[in-house]
Write a structure and sequence with these properties.
The chain contains 10 helices and 6 strands, in the order H-H-H-H-H-E-H-E-H-E-E-H-E-H-H-E. The chain is of the alpha/beta class and 221 residues long. It is globular, with a radius of gyration of 17 Å.
Length: 221
């Protein structure tokens, strides 16, 4: 279960004013709006989420690296837990023609406003109870989603990801912190995070929950 970085380049491509996130705004009200994962989170003001989550091609390099690392090919069945608007899944269909993609997200708004080319393969659902049979997918991934779950849901989701993937093949990327500065920056910036852990704590959780796939972290430096 190695540490594999997939998205640091995407994460660091956004400049963040951490103090600005908490000064001059009611952070609690913004978070209350964000955790509904509706229009305000995806396409509203930057203070309540992405400030407009639109397709811009930034996920293509991630799809290319994922396909190469995990040997994805035509006919491979992949699942994205927390797929949002399906941009990464769309890129996988372009990088690996013939791949079979499935996406699941808690946000009905995200699914309704997903990339049209993959919308038919996406569905609303909860990570703690994946509506798929054991071993349904050759590869399962979850990018910047599971830290949004409370511990009981997180534990269940990790077990579910392990259950529906063949041979435990998967990748999870979550937010983490390695020092006090990164912890404070994470708390300043986050709107929806429920699980605040160091890499060592995440790895303990992965092992205890039976998840044996790869993992990676993003940090707020």
């Amino acid at each position: 279960m190695p540490n594999v970085d997939l998205i640091t380049s995407v994460h660091t491509g956004t400049k963040r004013d951490y103090l600005g996130r908490v000064n001059g705004m009611d952070k609690a009200l913004a978070a209350e709006a964000a955790v509904k994962f509706g229009q305000e989170y995806w396409d509203g003001d930057r203070s309540t989420g992405y400030g407009g989550y639109r397709y811009d091609g930034r996920w293509r390099p991630v799809a290319e690296r994922m396909a190469q690392l995990y040997g994805l090919h035509a006919g491979s069945r992949v699942l994205d837990v927390g797929c949002g608007k399906g941009f990464l899944l769309y890129e996988l269909t372009q990088v690996v023609p013939g791949i079979a993609v499935t996406g699941l997200d808690i946000s009905a708004y995200a699914i309704e406003n997903a990339k049209p080319e993959v919308r038919q393969f996406l569905q609303v659902g909860n990570a703690r109870a994946l509506p798929f049979a054991d071993g349904s997918f050759d590869f399962v991934f979850s990018i910047t989603t599971l830290h949004n779950l409370y511990l009981d849901d997180l534990w269940a989701a990790l077990g579910e990801i392990a259950r529906v993937s063949k041979g435990g093949r998967g990748h999870i990327t979550v937010e983490a912190y390695r020092n006090e500065r990164e912890k404070v920056n994470l708390m300043y910036w986050q709107l929806t995070c429920r699980a605040f852990h160091t890499p060592q704590e995440w790895e303990w959780l992965f092992a205890k929950a039976g998840y044996t796939g790869d993992y990676g972290y993003i940090y707020f430096e």
